[in-house]
Protein 1
Amino acid sequence: MNVLMSGDMAGIPAAEVAERAKTHESTVVRLAKKLGYRGYPELRADLRRDEEEMTPSATVMRGESGHDLSAFIADEIRALKRLPHFVPQEDLDAAAQTLHASNVVYLYSKNDERPTLELLARRLRRLGLTTVLLGPTAKDLAEGFVSFDAKSTLIALALREAPLHLPTLVSEATRRGGKSIVLSDVPGYRFRPSPDHLIAARRGDDTEYRTQLIPMALAYALQLAIFHLAPAHYQATRDSIDDLTRLLGGADEIPLRS
């Protein structure tokens, strides 16, 4: 992936990609299929589109596929259907087990991904997990991360590109004995240093307009996977949250239980 993303690769055959990456041509073909393409030629065509000079239509959101609602929904459904192809259930369960064993979960992303990060934090809090949303500046990060320890887990979003401080945070999490999880939309990319768990799935096919539906779906999937590790415990926590909500005057927010 590092070789393919290095630029001006649209005209390079698979054999040369393999040579530059010091691997076998068959590995390049397998990578293309893992990314959801039928083969390397289809991946190369996609690279060519990315490298072509921007045309007036490409500056418009969904310039490749239009604003038609049916086409938009079809693209998102296609991305959702292939999600299990990219994320094996055992990988999701392993990340859930790490979160289940954590005392505190620290969450980090770029500002563009903050809505998804906040959704993920809320899903975890609904299970009773303590969360810390890390701020954007170095000082904010230091103040939020200073209490990270061996019973903590870092979750970071890395969509399109990794946040600036991600390598440092992953390295520091490991040094302190904790765990790290990265949610990405670039399958096959090797993060350095490597997180304990990498969950990567492609988003929609339109290169100019990719929603955060896939990472949001992963947030819900993680919540479900954690819940089913200890259903009685987490249901009791959810019931307690509902009871406290009513006690605090939020009865209209929670449906009554029989």
Note: Residues 91 and 199 are 7 Å apart (CA to CA).
Protein 2
Amino acid sequence: MPTAKPPTYASLRSTDTVGGAQSILRVLHILKYVGAASARGVSLTDVVRDLGLTPPTAHRMLSALLQEGFLSLNAARKTYSLGREAYILGLAAESRHGIKAIAEPAVRRLADGTGDTSFLSIRSGYEAVCVDRKTGDFPVKILTLEVGHRRPLGVGAGSLALLAFMPNDEVERVLAQYDVAAAPDLPTLEMLRADIAASRSNGYALNPGRIIPDMLGVGVPVYDREKRVVAALSVAAIRSRLSGPRLQEVVSALQRESAALTAELR
């Protein structure tokens, strides 16, 4: 059963800053980093290594977030995870931007109809975030992406669908921040441009096994009333289940659900 790989954090090291706000940005990067981690949480060493902070700075910021309730500390493991205040903010955001609740029936229908794993992804800066995942009844489950995990825009079927169908100028802004050196398994910029072109030509995004060679993923965008891409629906399965005529069947199912969801959002 393929399982999730550790998320990458290229965009968390972005040099884009607002004047005088570097400390605030660092704190927000820590929150995003912790939110993308597994249930085990992250350690001080993890934060220092992956976010490029010095130990004193990382400890000071973690302590402040802990004090305010945005993080919680597992004293035995000495790891941090999201706290009650982060949960409360999440509930408030969900009530205002509740695409997960609106899309959940569609994500479930895709999993039930295909028998495979379906996902709902949204954009966060230069990354895609998985906000929902449902599994079908096929014995081999594709669990490469957990709810809350992040990937650079363009990496993975849903993430590629978010990027490929944006306006050209926005695509270029994202690609300008793409850091292929952030992880050894990321596609090159040339590969990513080719994936974007193929997605636009086909009308759907295909991940041809870039994350796990024996796994394929296919995704489509979801639009709002202004015809902006606001989310992506995707399905992932072992290669033999997303080949030939069945690939087109899954694409059709995704496009039907996307059209219905887009109409509902409008």
Note: The beta strands are 71-74, 79-82, 117-124, 127-134, 150-152, 205-207, 215-223, 229-238.
Protein 3
Amino acid sequence: MEDLEETLFEDFENYSYSLEYYSPESDLEEKAPLEAVHWISLVLYCLVFVLGIPGNAIVIWFTGFKWKKTVTTLWFLNLAVADFIFLLFLPLHISYVAMNFHWSFGLWLCKANSFIAQLNMFASVFFLMVISLDRYIQLIHPVVSHRHRILRSSRIVITLVWLLASLLGGPALYFRDTLEFNNHTVCYNNFHKHDRDLALMRHHVLTWVKFIFGYLFPLLTMSICYLCLIFKVKKRSILVSSKYSWTILAVVMAFLICWTPYHLFSIWELTIHHSSYFNQVLEAGIPLSTALAFLNSCLNPILYVLISKKFQARFQASVAEILKYTLWEVSCSGTVSEQLRNSETKNPCLLETAQ
């Protein structure tokens, strides 16, 4: 049994650093810079959680409950929901890193936490791609847009996006596993137990599927949409809302900046099956690129507020309405004696309530 654990741990040490690095036998001099990188990553994770939870909650509240349901608000609502669900699970990963990559939450939360992270990545980029396509069709093909751009059609698209994101993120539920060694439990991708060739194939396939469907194809789609939009808008002199276009473009650029390093390091990580030459670079780069990728989950609501004047106007109007209602309630409340006295003098607040 001990030989089996040692073999598994050796495999684990030499493969798949991402989100699960643990090397108790490293020299202290080599380990110190890595610990500094991990603490920087930890600070970024906490920043993402502190900013992302209230930011996405505000977007969900207003787009889901306060504003009129439109195709556009449904896109941004689901984008915020994807980020919000991921952020709810982020404290698990924060504690994992803080405890020197010791996973104390059990096997099923190990699987669920990784699945939610993959689901968020795919759902976010797919909704950004849908928003770009929707913007292109709306401006360049208004007849088609007017005929098919309805709430029912958008709900079908949203359902398909969530199903596809769940399907692509599903392997995390199967391959994610826990391993206990020297009273230390890690949560890692168990692509194999004994067959290294099979593990190599699975690692390559899932990494390239994640890169192609979660990054390259959506990025090319969004780029083509915006390039065609720019050329055709100039050619036809179409009047567009520049603020809205800048908002969408900023959200797409934020995704590009945040996720590009993550995917590059994920592909680079495949080299560890053949050589350990870049291990230290990967051990430093992957946690930082992962933290940068997580940062995208709190950037979208900030971009809405900073760039979109329409969002600002709606947000301010909604907040003003809430404050007005709150102040009205306060002004119409008081002690029992005050209420009795007001009732005798026919307080207009009570009269309005009675009506």
Note: Residues 4-29, 332-341, 344-355 have pLDDT under 50 and may be disordered.
